[in-house]
From TrEMBL, chain A:
This is DUF1501 domain-containing protein. NCBIfam families: TAT_signal_seq. It holds the Pfam family DUF1501. The keyword Signal applies. Keywords: Signal. Residues 1-26 form the signal peptide. It comes from Primorskyibacter flagellatus.
From TrEMBL, chain B:
It holds the Pfam family DUF1800. It comes from Primorskyibacter flagellatus. This is DUF1800 domain-containing protein. InterPro entries: DUF1800. It comes from the Bacteria. Residues 63-82 are annotated as: Disordered.
Length: 418, 455
């Protein structure tokens, strides 16, 4: 039977080893990161339609397969942005054209995890983040965490997971800090001390509180809260309402891909070397071209914010965005696409080899499609991610093929790092 | 371990209230489910059929505007309708929390939330964005003490679900309709989630062929111009479809009866019994429930042909349902139980900005934006999914600031301990409640304590 992520996580908790245990119980020491390059991993949840994002207009079957998606032709106003003769990218990515031209944006086509045929988002994401070939041995941790486990000298501030919910990608024994720039935690010193006492005997609450306090302190938000918040007149109704409004405003200000990216850039400019988060909304079952616009705008905004926020560090940064599966090659009965197989990986950053659509193109004839419906995968997305980590961090191939992605053959990977 | 009145209210109900006496035994606890729905009467929420009148009206206005060339006025009306619906959504959220805060039948509220999550929908576009709770009120709540198959059929014909999972325009490729509309085709989203999430479960032993065949069978379930359910025989796939080894339909166009027959069979499937039993146990008892408990519940489901009351009774009767530290409350459970312990009987339901700041924005920060989960698999169940640094920060910030706004005079923290907690407070908490500098901090410490945050 498959061991799902939930079973694994609860088992480890029952055994008394909380996943959140210990990384930040002590105040964060300045991490002496073992390398200079930065890696940002973005999980695109919902199954991104590679064919709608990097459109292969040079393929003779493309236009026919995509009739009814609402997509405009090349050269039309509001149409896709040319990337050479063969490909054009969705117009929502137009703000990234200068990066493409500078060689700081690229794509890998026809990639997939080894997940086949059942096409469930949740299983697909679990396998993508676990980095395993199948569910056989059971999911214990995420591949990004296993990569950190393989490297000596990792400290809590080396890696960050950012956003409202934790990710399997970074779960595991290596310390990874999790935080959302929306969170705010302000209380009087006495309340804080008592809060720690009250949570002390429940390991989950104790460890997460310690982490929250450390992160909140380092964010500088607590001071802002306390200036007009409940410390002034704690039992006064107006004081309470003011504090509530203030924290709500702060949370609103800090929501969205842009703030997540800014928070990540702030950390990566300092001691952090790895950041991971998700962008949702790729499950485009209807009105394909229009439905892709929102999430693509988020993706573009995220990449631009990282570039601007990282400044000179952008040159040492690789951003990879990957999804659980691609979508059907044909447009479905509702102008959208259903869950498929082969998809597209997005690359950005000064350290990666952009200005190129990497990957072997399998073609779109009926015979070339996987099961006559999906883009045929021609490489393992794990091999591409491994190639990026090998190039950025100099990790040995056998560590990548045995520990980070057990059983992987990196032979099919492209040359993705400069 | 066995039934304990106070633990029952915390683990299976909405928490403890100084104003409500817990049911003395499991039979009395369950019997409340068979009594009239008092909470819904006191704190009403529109049904979907009531809600969709707004959508029909808006369409009429738009059509009239087109005909008379008064588009500006129409746009204004549309904006007003949208604002009204958004305000009502906030108001219904407050009503739902007040049901939790005041009800004698907390189990009904928890079950409604559980099954609404099992059959997650998120409104797609326009006014539907605000239709989730009306959907729950109409298609879920009346069935929580009935038969699962009836709930499944209600959901499969609910416009919110048909739109959420892209069923409403799915067309049999060989249907009369498709013959004249090239490009029309089948969409298998609902069929897949129905097998994977709603009935058999991902390990339930179905294949891609079963998904495809079920999708063909479901073609016809659709939504009419007034956002009501309709069955379109013209778009059904001719011939029989074979799902999990059973054939449905004959040579002619499909019918709603065939769909119902298939849904009844899916509801009756032993894998469905196992999937639902485990999911209920995970939700109410713990992230890794006792195998014997799950087996007893699944067996009750099979023996009663999918009636839910015997499943709940089997859960409450099993010793394993009463052991363990208990799940961490999800944010809505957390907030509801805090309001209940604080005896909050009214909320500023007419002041949307206040509701946003006091309730909906904090829920979002705790990781559970109201009625807006990320996908059709609904909210997570694991303790670690909720107790993250930012999720915990959201809870603490709410506990520190909001109770004093909602309650005229906060109770003495030392007395509040025995109101809010099912068992005697741990020593450290008793000390902290007395040592806090202010009442607000004392109450916050109790609401923040693991003893209160767990069920």
């Amino acid at each position: 039977m498959e061991t799902t992520r939930r079973q694994f996580l609860t088992r480890s908790l029952a055994a008394g080893c909380s996943l959140a245990a210990s990384p930040l119980v002590a105040p964060v020491a300045i991490a002496s990161a073992p390398w200079e390059n930065r890696l940002v991993v973005v999980i695109l949840r919902g199954g991104m339609d590679g064919l709608g994002v990097v459109q292969p207009w040079g393929d003779p079957d493309f236009a026919t397969l995509r009739a009814g998606s609402g997509m405009r032709e090349r050269g039309q106003p509001g149409g896709p942005v040319e990337l050479g003769d063969y490909y054009a990218m969705h117009s929502a990515l137009a703000p990234l054209l200068p990066l493409w031209q500078a060689g700081e944006l690229g794509f890998v086509n026809a990639v997939s995890t080894p997940y086949r045929n059942r096409r469930s988002h949740f299983d697909g994401q679990d396998l993508l983040e676990a980095g395993l070939a199948d569910f056989g041995p059971g999911i214990r941790d995420g591949w990004l965490n296993r990569m950190l486990q393989a490297v000596p000298g990792i400290e809590a501030e080396t890696a960050y997971t950012i956003g409202a919910s934790g990710m399997l990608l970074t779960k595991g024994e290596a310390p990874v800090a999790e935080w959302s720039p929306q969170a705010v935690l302000a209380m009087s010193p006495q309340a804080r001390r008592l809060m720690e006492e009250v949570m002390h005997d429940d390991p989950l609450f104790r460890d997460v509180l310690a982490e929250a306090l450390t992160l909140s302190d380092s964010g500088g938000y607590a001071a802002m809260m306390q200036s007009g918040g409940m410390d002034g007149s704690p039992d006064d109704m107006l004081g309470g309402m003011a504090a509530v409004r203030q924290s709500a405003q702060l949370a609103r200000d800090n929501a969205g891909a842009e703030h997540v990216a800014r928070f990540a850039a702030d950390r990566l400019r300092g001691d952090a070397r790895i950041a991971a988060f998700s962008i949702n909304g790729w499950d485009t079952h209807a009105r394909q071209d229009a439905a892709l616009r929102g999430p693509l705008e988020q993706l573009a905004q995220m990449i631009l914010t990282l570039r601007d926020g990282l400044g000179p560090v952008w040159a040492k940064t690789g951003v990879i965005a990957m999804t659980e599966f691609g979508r059907t090659a044909r447009i479905n009965g509702t102008g959208g696409t259903d869950h498929g197989t082969g998809g597209t990986m997005v690359l950005a950053g000064g350290a990666l080899r952009g200005g190129v659509v990497h990957g072997d193109w399998p073609g779109l004839t009926e015979a070339a499609l996987y099961q006559g419906r999906d883009l045929m995968p021609t490489s393992d997305v794990r091999a591409q991610a491994a190639a990026v980590m090998q190039g950025l961090f100099g990790l040995p191939r056998d560590v990548l093929e045995r520990t980070v992605f057990p059983g992987l053959d990196m032979g099919g990977a492209g040359r993705l790092v400069l | 371990m066995s039934y304990s009145p106070r633990r029952a209210e915390v683990r299976f109900g909405c928490g403890l209230s100084p104003a409500v006496v817990p049911a003395g035994d499991a039979a009395a606890f369950l019997a409340r489910l068979k009594q009239p729905d008092e909470a819904a009467r006191r704190f009403p929420v529109e049904t979907f059929d009531e809600f969709r009148v707004r959508i029909a009206e808006q369409r009429e206005m738009m059509a009239e505007a087109k005909a008379t060339g008064t588009r500006n006025k129409a746009a204004k009306d549309a904006r007003r309708a949208r604002r009204d619906a958004r305000l009502d959504e906030q108001r219904w959220m407050a009503q739902a929390l007040l049901r939790r805060a005041t009800t004698r039948d907390g189990f009904r509220e928890r079950l409604t939330a559980f099954w609404a999550d099992h059959f997650t929908v998120v409104g797609k576009g326009g006014l539907l964005r605000f239709g989730e709770l009306p959907y729950v009120e109409q298609s879920i709540r009346p069935h929580v003490a009935g038969r699962f198959g009836d709930m499944l059929k209600a959901v499969a014909t609910a416009p919110m679900m048909l739109r959420y999972l892209d069923q409403e325009r799915s067309t049999g490729p060989n249907s009369a309709f498709a013959a004249r509309h090239p490009g029309a085709g089948v969409n298998e989203n609902l069929a897949r989630e129905m097998l994977e999430l709603h009935t058999l479960g991902v390990d339930g032993g179905y294949s891609q062929t079963d998904v495809s065949e079920l999708a063909l069978l479901l073609a016809g379930l659709s939504v009419d111009a007034e956002e009501g359910f309709t069955f379109r025989a013209r778009v059904t796939e001719p011939g029989a479809q074979r799902v999990l080894g059973v054939s449905y339909g004959s040579d002619g166009p499909g019918s709603l009866e065939e769909v119902h027959a298939a849904l009844d069979d899916l509801a009756r499937h032993p894998a469905t019994a196992a999937h639902l039993a485990r999911k209920l146990a995970v939700h109410f008892v713990g992230d890794e429930p006792d195998a014997g408990l799950v087996a007893a519940m699944a067996s009750a489901y099979r023996d009663s042909d999918g009636a839910l009351m015997p499943v709940y009774a089997a859960m409450l009767a099993h010793p394993a349902a009463w052991s363990g530290a208990g799940n961490v409350k999800a944010p809505v459970d957390y907030m509801g139980s805090a309001l209940r312990a604080l005896s909050v009987g009214a909320l500023p339901v007419r002041q949307a900005d206040k509701l946003a700041v006091l309730l909906s924005q904090p829920l979002e920060l705790m990781g559970q934006p109201w009625m807006y989960p990320e996908g059709p698999d609904g909210w997570p169940e694991r303790d670690e999914d909720w107790i993250t640094p930012q999720g915990l920060a959201g809870r603490l910030q709410w506990a520190l600031n909001v109770p004093q706004v909602l309650v005229e005079v906060l109770p003495d923290p030392r007395g509040f301990l025995s109101v809010a907690l099912p068992d005697p407070a741990p020593e450290a908490l008793r000390f902290a409640a007395g040592a806090a500098e202010t009442r607000a901090e004392g109450i916050a410490l109790i609401l923040a304590s693991p003893a209160f945050q767990r069920m």
